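Supplementary Methods, section 5.1.

A reviewer requested that the exact input to the structure prediction be made available. We therefore reproduce it here, unchanged from the version used in the analyses.
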Amino acid sequence: MKEMIRDATSRRLFPAVLTGLLIGTTSVFYHISLATLIFSGSLSEFLASGIGLVLFGATVLGLTAALLSSLPGMIASVQDSPAAIFALVAAAIAVRVSGSGSAQQVYLTVVATLSLASLITGVVFFAMGRLGLSSFIRFVPYPVVGGFLAGTGWLLAAGALRVMTGLPLALSDLPALIRSALLPHWLPGVAFAFLMLFLSRRYKHPLLMPIMLATGLALFYAVLALTGTSMADASAQGYLLGPFPNRVLWMPLSPALLPSVDWSAVIAQTGKLVSILVLSTIGLLLNASALELAVQKDIDLDRELSVAGIGNVLGALGGSPVGFQTIGTSALSQRMGGGSRLTTLVTALLLGGALMFGASVLSFFPKVLLGGLLLSLGLSFLYDWVVASARSLPASDYVLVLLILAIIATVGFLEGVAAGTVIAVLIFVINYSRVEFVKDELTGLTYRSRMERPVEHRRLLEEKGPHILVLRLQGFLFFGTAQSLLNRIRVRLGDADQPAVRFLLLDFHRVSALDSSAVIGFTRLHQLAQAGEIKLVLAELTSTMRERLERGGLIETEGGLLRMFPSLDQAMEWCEGRMLAEDQRSIIRRAASLESRLREVFQQPGQIERFRSYLEQLDLPAGAQLIRQGDSPDAMYFVDSGRVSAHLELEPGKGIRLSSMGAGTVVGEVGLYLHQDRTASVITDMPSVVFRLTAKALTQMRERDPDLAAALHEWMVRLLAHRLTDNNRTLEALLS
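The structure derived from this sequence is encoded token-by-token as follows.
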């Protein structure tokens, strides 16, 4: 309210009011055309009351948007898409009720259904807005939305023909349409519609529609004058909306009349009412999202849902059809009226004035002009989604749009919506099944755990690494992807030209979820692994994934062929450890010691003893901190027994493991050689014996025993070269 008072006392007053008058005048005729669409055929005798219901709803929606919308100047109105579906609802109710009830009962049942549809839609709108569910629109397939809108265009076009002639658009009625007596009723309207469509596509001026309507009115009454047709004759021949009773248009359904409603006929239309709800939700969110781009302003979509919900609930009390925020008039309000709430208020008041005082004037409005206006709306939808979309949509999506349109035109709107949704889901499933669900395929040769190992162990793992097959999975796993994975692994296991697989490691780090059908696929994979004596290793399963697999019979047992680990690194370390443990060569067993490593490096007599003289022995319990992240480098360490791990500390109490080192390995050498602060902390995983070589001792070694220092430096160079080779091999495998 403060915004309106501020705008009313500023320079924005004149453009805001002028824009409101322009939009309001156009909206009056637009809403009359929607009322005519619904209250046609056997319901045409209630057209005056129907116009009142629609104008009442438009007034309430406009006032609600003026006061509560997140975007000042937002225009809300009764919408053509729900109205097109409701025209089918009204026709079905008329057929069902007229056989056993009066015309008055038919009207009351139609109004009750209108109110119920708006009430349900309003409640759902408000609940979605309060719960923040505006992102719902992102889950609706785009071609399905296109099919909805194309089908809406067909219903509008068919309804426009019914408004002008009283006949439905059907093949059986085509001979009657071309009779000379009916041609004047619809042919000018069709010409007007195509002219309106052509001009609106070429020119975007806001005065186009008012000028077209004024010109059409002038031509209509000029023809009446030239042919000597009186107003009474024109009305009697069905060219005019009226005559209307000389009273207020709005005649809502009072509580006393509710017993007269045929509620069985209302319930029979449940499917179409659901269609109205779904289409209205999609339409509102699409309109609001598109308007954000058009006006380049942020719009609170959840708030707009709540505002539309309030407007529809209030409108339902007076029998209004469903309505919500619009694109075109709202964008016009922003451009011409500066985005003022006064524009919305003036528009709503003008609609309210037509509701209260416009019966006598509206009765003289020609049906052919309203039918032409409706037909132009329908043709606009059909052009966008049948003609223009052929150039922008993929072939499969375009065919789906045409299929939905064909089903809506020949069978029914709900059937078209349902079939389109089901087909879109099937297309998605088929396409998603073709998406690469294996992000990387690696082996134990191209991917290593972070466990530092002696040279002999590394050589063995290079020799036998190809027997470890690593598949890093991604996406959502369901029956399609699970079956494709099973087929892929079956082909790999049966390939005699590649090394036999002894360990099959599946990484689930990038898997979002898996359904019950995927569990069946993994159960079959487990059976396949058991038949080939292959160890199946699963890494980084979420608790939900693990629970589902266990329910499907995939349970980890000690000594079994199925193992599960919290990380890929731990799973890979286990596979490497099993492979090393199974090797019976003594050189492999001896390699896991510092003494063996020193014998390999220092081959001259007495070098090992001299090297040990520079070392300090540390006997450390589990959990002891050998190196602290951020400290200055003062030593390097040689692990004699036990195991230590390097951890990157992200924040206090939280970190990730970078690598682990066992007997015969070195830690801390990089920082010492580069003279850089420690980049990670090193902690013992178990009681360990470690020898420390300080920076001071290394300097003394260089001065007193250069041959010994050279051998040590050569050891470090080979160690770093091995690490670099492993990293390059893994990187090459990931990028290939």
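Residues 10-424 form one domain. These observations are discussed further in the main text.
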